[in-house]
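Pasting as-is:
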Amino acid sequence: MKLFSKEQIYEGDKLTTERQNISSTDLMERAGTQIFNWIHMRMQGAQVPIHVFCGIGNNGGDGLVLARHLLTHGYNVVTYIVNCSDKRSKDFLINYDRIKSVTKDWPKMLSCSSDFSDVVIDEKDIIVDAVFGIGLNRQPNDWVQELFQKWRGSKAFTLSIDIPSGLYTDKPIEDENAVVHANYTLSFQSPKLIFFLPETSKFTVQWEALDIGIDRDYLMQTETEVELISKYEVLPLYKPREKFSHKGDFGHALIVGGSYGKIGAVNLASRAALSSGAGLVTAYIPKCGYHSMQASFPEAMVITDKDEERITDISFDIEPSVVGIGVGLGTADKTSKALELFLNTNKTKLVIDADGLNILSKKKALLKLLPEQTVLTPHPKELERLVGEWTDDFDKLKKVKDFSKTYKVIVVLKGANTITVFGDKLYINTTGNPGMATAGTGDVLTGIITGLIAQDYEPLAATIFGVYLHGKSADISLEDYGYQSLIASHIIETIGEAYIDLFKQPEQEQQQQEQNAQ
């Protein structure tokens, strides 16, 4: 799913009115009606008090359309105008006049100097936030902030229209008290990037995109900086297997890493590479890990360094399709030197994680030796060592995009919504859960991506697909283990189920959910 920028949304609205020969007021009516339909389908006329708070711009106009339809259908509605300026939009004014025709109780005017004595909200009520939309460019004043805090203090269910009021689409907020904490956000046409960033995702617990009929050609033809990755985006990436294929058709993945006490990291990455579909997997480890590796993972081949406890020389006679390097590696001087010598001669595709990244961050000149589209999978601290400190999420994304363009690498920003960055493009993953915050899950991700590249997936496609499979496998395992007991090995065990899930029809998914609930 494409995530459109603020400017692209404005352009889409303008083109839609022109190509469909409708007015901006008609488009607002369409948007407000869609919100009403969403609420009406769920409430079926229930007389729960609904408090609709409207600003005086177009977001407020959407709120007025919603309030009018709710009143017409007999709902218990109180409409408020957050009247803190004299700059009302044209479409707001039109819908302000229209709502007067369906109710004797005009919307209550809340001036920015009044108190809140007339605003009584119970915990069981519903608040609709239609105060500010995507056009907000400065922090709300103190009075509006107090209103938002009153909502939060009421504990009433809060539904935001398009975006929680007080958020910006393209820059960080200054004060959390100046932002609505929404339980649910109905976003027009597509979600917003800020729904998926660490500092701003908490302002809406859930979201849904409503189709308001923006011109289809515009939606299809417009390139966006951000894409949201779900099953439907990764399905076209999947490579089916031929009947007479053999293991040589699916590549040879080499996993280089491990040190005394950290052989398990290589074990996890190697198992994940094979479970994701690589034809062959070889582990390159220190001598101390030879017996444990052979015993615990007999499907893998093993090459050992001459050193007992660490990697000191990365040399081999095999011809791998891809090398995954860094898991459990350590940063000893001899290991760092071995990686440097390897990078100076290597032409094979690379996936680099963990201590491989830490070595690169200590000697950034080595970054110039990386083949194009090398995949880097840092956790936040490893990322900071590579790109430097950032002030906020937007600054972080800018630094990573600049880094990616400079070295022509793919960077995976691991987190609750893992983001794959390549050049100016961002790919936001939708699978995964908090149970993945446990040792070894990063090693598994490295193995999955390495295994996909071995099968001749392009590195970017392998990364997007791999991140999705990694999260989906964890979601499947979660059903049996819960957040606290989920471990990295469980994720490997359900990679196969994640593949199978790609081809389940919606009714099959529903049946599976019902079976799991029994």
